[in-house]
Amino acid sequence: MSKKTPTLDRRGFLKASVATSMAAAAPMFFIQNSYAGSHAKTFRNMPKADAKSVTLGFNVPQTGAYADEGADELRAFKLAVKHLNGEGDGGMMNTFKPSALKGNGVLGKKVEFVTGDTQTKSDAARNSAKRMIEKDGVLMISGGSSSGVAIAVQGLCQEMGTIFMAGLTHSNDTTGKDKRRYGFRHFFNAKMTGSALGPVLKEEMGTERKAYHLTSDYTWGWTQEESIKETTEGLGWKTVKTVKTPVGAGDFSQYITPILNSGADTLILNHYGKDMINSLTQSVQFGLRDKQVNGKNFEIIVPLYSRLMAQGAGKNLQGILGTTNWNWALTDDGSKAFVKSFGKEYGNPPSQAAHTCYVQTLLYANACEVAGTFYPPEVIKALEGFKFDGMGNGATEYRAEDHQCFKDVLVVRGNDKPTSQFDLLKIVKQVPRSAVEYEAKIFGGELGPYKV
Amino acid sequence: MDAILIQILNGLDKGGAYALIALGLTLTFGTLGVVNFAHGALFMMGAFCAVLFNKILTISKKVKDESITFFDAYKETPYLEIWWGDTGTAIIDYSVPLSIFFAIPVMLLVGVIMERGLIKHFYKREHADQILVTFGLAIVIQEIIRHFFGANPIPTPAPEIVSGSAAVGAFFGLNENLVYPWWRLIYLAFSLSIIAAVFAFLKFTTFGMVVRAGMADRETVELLGINVQKRFTVVFGIATVVAGLAGVMYAPILPPDYHMGMDFLVLSFVVVVVGGMGSLGGAVLAGFMLGLLQSFASMNEVKAILPGIDQIIIYLVAVVILLVRPRGLMGREGVFED
């Protein structure tokens, strides 16, 4: 038997070349129309070519102390989805500019959503985000009411290559030392709160005050204390003492009693949610607001307000200064359109948490339209440095260096003459964006890579 | 001296709350032998009795709010104010103290239903089973409350007349600026009265004597033909009412939310363990002792020497007591020692 040696003739070579080329081109043929762009790249949860819809993941506290805030965020998300799909009155879609949104979903695909429960616990939030990414195939995660949770979920999203549009998170760290390429924050932060409050504090309380801080013992509390301290000391105030309190302390009386004899004439409550409601209520009960110290009226400041906190604190909040990201009483066209749409749908005005979640959803959808693809690195590039208006708070920019939105900040005061059950906070000043800007490098941190 | 006086008052006031909750817990354990992890939820239900009573008093007429033009919003005026003017306003203002009369029958009913419907089936089961079922019950109660009232704390203020502070400094001949909230002083007096009433009931009534005898030696009392079980069921109801009243009066101090019971549950168990399982006197003593220790540990001067001591002091004491005297300060010999 003779052994046949394989040979390659010219015809064979040509056949093999054509076959190889077709095989190599085939995946490109299938992929290129699988998402509405021309980027020949695959990515996690890439929609199929014939998919009629895409899914977003809304990760909000549905149980736990922030469940009410989470419920309001969810209402806003549902409204945003409705508007993106061309239903309802369109809300801010009518005022947002420059907008590439068409009201036919995103890139022609209907928007659907799944929800997760963060429980305002980092582990639970990461698990629910992971579940939505892996099992539900979501393209984007949004929501949340805590900086601890936002930072944890943002880290996960970076690892998994899924964009995270943060909900309510106010710690400097979210877009500071813990910033991530895949994380974006529309909400303002503690540094901006300090910059906005400073001039108002100077005008109303002068430059010779002695401040005492009670601070929630976690990332948000620490950064807020640092930022407010920096501001007040810049005004000439002295810091008498800073005291960390455990989250969920309930009864703060043992932390309030030492203030009575501390010589301080101002109490700064770096608390949020239930902690703030309790510490403020108890501070007022201890007569702090009726005291005269160093020849001045004792003052309490709550740097970060929310409407739900205002509801919980009741009359104790009246006359107390703080800041918010947004308020439903703003009269710009965007705010009015959103409040009208939300109010019609749910019978009450939106909270600032609802506002930021609604805006984040629209911004993500718009970035996909601008990029012409769902491919995350391109969507990220469309968001970085994006300048827009018509979403409340005036002209806004998503700064490319740290993914922090810069816009006007509101200094508010607990309303002592409310005209309605919703009229809890009165806008004292709309501080222009230029007054709250800072250099991205001051907080350090690295965004990380586009491709993961 | 000013700071010491304030911390003593604060410690007593905290201790009053701890003692009141721990007292009910100890009554349940001492009589029925049940470790009731739903006791914190009963405290929370008490606070929500105050909230619910306030809501009943403020049932309102809705009128379109013309100040809001974006959507249909309504202003609410309580019918009591419409019908009775200032008298109606005053009744609403006093809703917290008035809700005591609402809470007593409600909590008694809750206690009896809980004992007859669930707890009695677990008398002869392991403590672990009792803990599991009562803890589960606590979660169910919490979620029901959250469903109807939401997760956000609900402001439930004290009557206007006692919403400010008392000049305790002037009273004790110290700094005139030294003040302490009226309602916290009222709470302290209230908790002392309830504790005294429970002790008097057990000490000076025939019913109480039988209960104490049953706690000491149930078998012998039953051999005398007395239905101890029936009396213990009533005691469970009393423990429920005590927890509920502690919650009602605490509502102005801590705006009620569905989770407030859990925050107190761990603390009150520590109080019971330190005082001695089943010892009523021990629970009261430990309640006030731990309240005072926690208050003094929170002084900045103390924290300067021992940072973070305010957050661990109670548990540190519990560890030491369990190591040195496992039966607790006033616990009966043999309980938790074998």
What features would you highlight for this structure?
A: about 450 residues, alpha/beta, Rossmann fold, 2 domains, 7-stranded mixed β-sheet, 5-stranded parallel β-sheet, 13 helices, globular, B: about 350 residues, mainly alpha, two-stranded antiparallel ribbon
Molecular structure report:
- By secondary structure, chain A is α/β, with parallel strands linked by helices.
- Chain A has helices at 10-32, 67-84, 122-134, 147-160, 190-205, 219-235, 253-260, 273-285, 307-313, 333-346, 352-371, 376-383, 433-436, and strands spanning 53-60, 110-117, 140-143, 163-166, 183-185, 210-216, 238-245, 266-270, 292-293, 296-297, 299-304, 321-324, 387-388, 396-398, 405-406, 409-414, 425-431.
- Chain A has 2 domains: 53-188 and 328-407, Response regulator (Rossmann fold, 3-Layer(aba) Sandwich); 191-324, 3-Layer(aba) Sandwich (Rossmann fold), CATH 3.40.50.
- Chain A has a 7-stranded mixed sheet, with helices on both faces. A 5-stranded parallel sheet of chain A has the order 2-1-3-4-5, with helices on both faces.
- Chain B has 338 residues and is mainly α.
- In chain B, the strands form 2 sheets. A two-stranded antiparallel ribbon of chain B has the order 1-2. In chain B, strands 3-4 form a two-stranded antiparallel sheet.
- Chain B is globular, with a radius of gyration of 22 Å.
- At the A-B interface, helix 2, helix 7, helix 8, helix 9 and helix 10 of A face helix 1, strand 4, helix 12 and helix 13 of B.
